[in-house]
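User: Just a sanity check before I run the rest of the batch. Below are the structure tokens for the first item. I only need the designed sequence back.
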């Protein structure tokens, strides 16, 4: 096969007089080759295809190459991840004399979108055969693309490709949702939003009722009626920007109560629209579950992302976010098991910076934020105040995201001078952390990339020619990427190992969600302790660094009401 010819097997088209095959005949014919371990399979976005085939009882194996993942590993910021864009980049379309159709050209989009079974067989055949042939011809050029850096091929073969069937299984498993509870929560939020809206109107300086979601009317209220300061706020087509960061800054500067209420109204409206009202509509009628899509190639750090719906952005620190998590439930006789890494990014930073004090504190099992506060404030661990610990925690995590004195000032009650002095003292007491940050920035400017513990790279291009704003952003992201990317790599390895261990030990627990440093499983109650112990140990042993990795397990009837698993 040379990738110049593709085939389409028509099944299930409606309103057609063209010959088709019965679906059962096709499945029976394809099962043997698609499950033959000696026949390698390639795909573009393989996890999607794997899920579809599993619905018909075919577990495609082995999937040895995914052209989308290969291109993403070559350059995590690539804008050529779609099949058509990647084919254009490799100049395949011209050589093949092909003009690829977008799927929306065949089935439309939005309210007018139709299903693929309504597409005429001849049209569908051209579209599908082109996809198959082009994917096949992309394998070798994208394989060569993995040669861009030494670790890419290893990460591709040992981490990303083994993760594909794990992700497909999680998407198949789905999550159970309490739709009745979400309906009640929606009504409560509507009452709460009405109350906040009335408070906004009352604080509008006599302006009266207005559309809170209208940037133009919000401008009239904030900068016209209330005459709030506009210095340093960028102009938009509707007036001055009313983005969240702007409102937060105005609240710090003026303390006007309307600003806090507007932000509350926005958060509640967004969560209600995005989750509370939307989730019940996304329940699959056949399974009774929501099946999110986990995207392997959705970030530049290597983290998984999720979409349709995005279940990774549900806030955990707000009451409403926790209320949304309450809607994620489990069938009778089972519990949700949530296992998360404890301060994994700080542990990785301590390892990468080779900072003795942090490494010693983690090894001794100390509260790392209290230990940092004790060091910076030159007091004993017992003398650390709550405020000192909070400040140390803010800086510990903030430095991973390029925090400077300005941001620390905004997020604390310190003046700029006090913020600057605190960070300076922090670096004096933890000099290896400062050295790590400086070395990372130096590598960014000299090499144009940074990399994780496993060698995954993120390229930034020519940083020296960037504008000051873009250069500062690149520096912040470069400092964060090796730490967050290493955390993502470790979590992926843990997921692969958990999936394998559950099968080998004949445990019935199944992974349903992965959110940043946390994995969520649905587990039979009689296997809870055994499964929790397995998952904790597997996560802690996923990758060896000079600081012990620690995982915590909780269980409960839903994702909010959880308690620690009693492990030996």
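Assistant: Here's the designed sequence for the first item:
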């Amino acid at each position: 096969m040379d990738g110049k010819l593709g085939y389409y097997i028509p099944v299930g088209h409606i309103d057609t007089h063209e010959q088709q095959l019965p679906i059962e005949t096709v499945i029976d014919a394809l099962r043997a080759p698609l499950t033959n371990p000696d026949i390698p399979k390639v795909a573009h976005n393989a996890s999607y295809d794997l899920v579809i085939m599993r619905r018909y009882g075919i577990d495609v194996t082995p999937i040895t190459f995914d052209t989308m993942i290969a291109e993403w590993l070559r350059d995590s910021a690539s804008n050529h991840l779609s099949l058509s864009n990647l084919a254009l980049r490799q100049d395949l379309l011209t050589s093949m004399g092909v003009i690829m159709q977008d799927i929306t050209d065949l089935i439309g989009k939005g309210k007018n979108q139709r299903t693929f079974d309504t597409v005429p067989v001849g049209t569908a055949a051209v579209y599908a055969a082109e996809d198959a042939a082009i994917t096949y011809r992309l394998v070798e050029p994208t394989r060569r693309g993995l040669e861009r850096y030494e670790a890419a091929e290893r990460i591709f073969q040992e981490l990303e490709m083994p993760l594909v069937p794990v992700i497909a299984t999680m998407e198949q498993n789905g999550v159970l949702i309490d739709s009745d509870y979400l309906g009640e929560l929606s009504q409560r939020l509507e009452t709460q939003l009405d109350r906040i809206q009335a408070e906004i109107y009352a604080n509008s300086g006599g302006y009266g009722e207005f559309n809170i979601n209208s940037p133009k009317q919000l401008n009239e209220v904030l900068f016209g009626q209330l005459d709030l300061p506009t210095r340093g706020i960028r102009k938009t087509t509707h007036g001055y920007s009313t983005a969240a960061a702007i409102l937060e800054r105005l609240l710090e500067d003026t303390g006007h109560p309307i600003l806090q209420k507007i932000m509350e109204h926005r958060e509640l409206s967004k969560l209600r629209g995005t989750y509370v009202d939307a989730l019940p509509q996304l329940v699959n009628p056949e399974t009774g579950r929501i099946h999110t899509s986990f995207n392997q190639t959705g970030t530049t750090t290597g983290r998984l992302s999720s979409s349709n719906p995005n279940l990774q952005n549900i806030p955990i620190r707000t009451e409403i976010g926790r209320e949304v998590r309450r809607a994620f439930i489990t069938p009778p006789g089972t519990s949700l098991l949530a296992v998360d890494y404890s301060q994994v990014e700080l542990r990785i930073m301590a390892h990468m910076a080779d900072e003795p004090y942090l490494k010693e504190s983690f090894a001794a099992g100390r509260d790392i934020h209290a230990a940092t506060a004790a060091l910076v404030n030159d007091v004993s661990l017992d003398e650390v105040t709550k405020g000192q610990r909070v400040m140390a925690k803010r800086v510990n995590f903030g430095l991973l995201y390029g925090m400077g004195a300005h941001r620390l000032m905004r997020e604390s009650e310190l003046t700029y001078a006090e913020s600057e002095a605190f960070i300076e003292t922090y670096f004096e007491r933890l000099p290896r952390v400062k050295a790590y940050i400086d070395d990372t920035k130096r590598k960014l400017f000299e090499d144009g990339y940074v990399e994780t513990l496993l060698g995954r790279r993120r390229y930034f291009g020519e940083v020296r020619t960037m504008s000051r704003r873009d250069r500062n952003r690149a520096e912040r992201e470069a400092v964060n990427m090796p730490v967050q990317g290493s955390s993502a790599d470790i979590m992926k390895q843990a997921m692969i190992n958990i999936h394998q261990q559950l099968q080998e030990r004949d445990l019935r627990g199944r992974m349903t969600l992965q959110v940043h440093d946390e994995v969520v499983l649905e587990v039979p109650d009689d296997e809870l302790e055994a499964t929790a112990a397995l998952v904790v140990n597997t996560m802690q042993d996923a990758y060896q660094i000079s600081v012990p990795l620690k995982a915590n397990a909780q269980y409960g009837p839903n994702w909010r009401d959880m308690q620690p698993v009693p492990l030996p």
